[in-house]
Design a protein that fits this description.
5 helices, 3-stranded antiparallel sheet, FAD/NAD(P)-binding domain, 2 domains, binds flavin-adenine dinucleotide, 5-stranded antiparallel sheet, Alpha-Beta Plaits, alpha+beta, single chain
């Protein structure tokens, strides 16, 4: 994903686009049904059209402009571990369906991901959080991988209750939503971007959009009876 994203950024810049990294959005300004500006720690930005795609942070900023999004952070963990002997390492991605651990070879490293935790916006982690996924991986691949040199990370999945992303317009005429991709957003990223780009340009979307548009039903609180 990182390699793809860097290559995509280069294509955008070659075509005259501008990518601003290290720039934090601190506010969105709304007048009635229109976004008027984005306020960042590097200044203000004005556009005709805006796309909200801030992952698990989307509902935090959206709330400030009166837009409630049914997205909740679900924490996951990842370990990236050097391969020291390719002959003993996995050659293909592996999913241990019983333990819900995914192991992906990436050149001279493997990436192991697992766990879904409700921990709010806490991104902290400690070695014991990785003990289970490490044990499962070691059982499958006991040699050839330098477990003592693992890089560890924790990240947040932007989950929706129905497990589908939210794409399209809701209440605000120039704020397009492309968010809420949950545990499978990398897989859906290209399709979602295509759909949102088509909708913004007024073209027909390439697939039926049932279930992924921001309809009232998806935003409604579950009634006591249904719950
Ligand atoms: C452990 C784990 C394993 C996963 N495995 C898979 C998998 O195998 N396959 C798959 O398809 N998906 C997987 N996912 C899910 C996938 O990572 C997400 O669905 C996807 O990253 C969501 O993409 P996004 O662009 O909506 O949000 P993000 O990737 O979270 O991007 C949002 C961006 O907005 C930026 N941002 C947030 N707030 C601000 C702000 N105020 N100002 C400026 N920038 C801001 C963030 O820095 C970030 O760069 C996994 C997730 C986790 C946690």
């Amino acid at each position: 994903a990182a390699k793809f994203t860097r290559a995509l950024a280069a294509i955008v810049e070659n075509r005259g686009g501008k990518i601003l990294t290290g720039t934090r959005i601190v506010g969105i300004e709304r007048r009635k049904e229109t976004i008027t500006k984005i306020v960042t720690d590097k200044g203000e930005f004005l556009a005709d059209t805006y796309v909200l795609c801030l992952g698990a942070e989307s509902p935090v900023l959206a709330r400030k402009i009166g837009l409630g999004l049914p997205i909740y952070p679900v924490k996951g963990y990842s370990m990236t571990i050097p391969i020291v002997d390719q002959a003993l390492a996995p050659k293909l991605p592996v999913i241990d369906e019983h333990n819900l651990v995914a192991i992906t070879p990436m050149g001279d490293r493997i990436r192991v991901t697992a766990t879904a935790e409700f921990a709010g916006y806490d991104r902290s982690h400690k070695p014991s959080d990785f003990a289970f996924m490490k044990r499962v991986t070691q059982d499958l691949f006991p040699r050839g991988i330098a477990f003592d040199r693992a890089e560890m990370r924790a990240c947040l999945r932007p989950m929706t209750p129905d497990n589908l992303p939210i794409l399209g317009l809701r209440d605000i005429r120039n704020l397009w939503l492309n968010t809420g991709h949950g545990h499978i957003g990398w897989t859906m990223a290209h399709g979602s971007a295509r759909i949102v780009a088509d909708l913004i340009a007024g073209r027909a979307a390439p697939i039926a959009l049932d279930g992924i548009l921001p309809t009232q039903a998806r935003f409604a609180e579950p009634s006591a009876a249904k719950a």
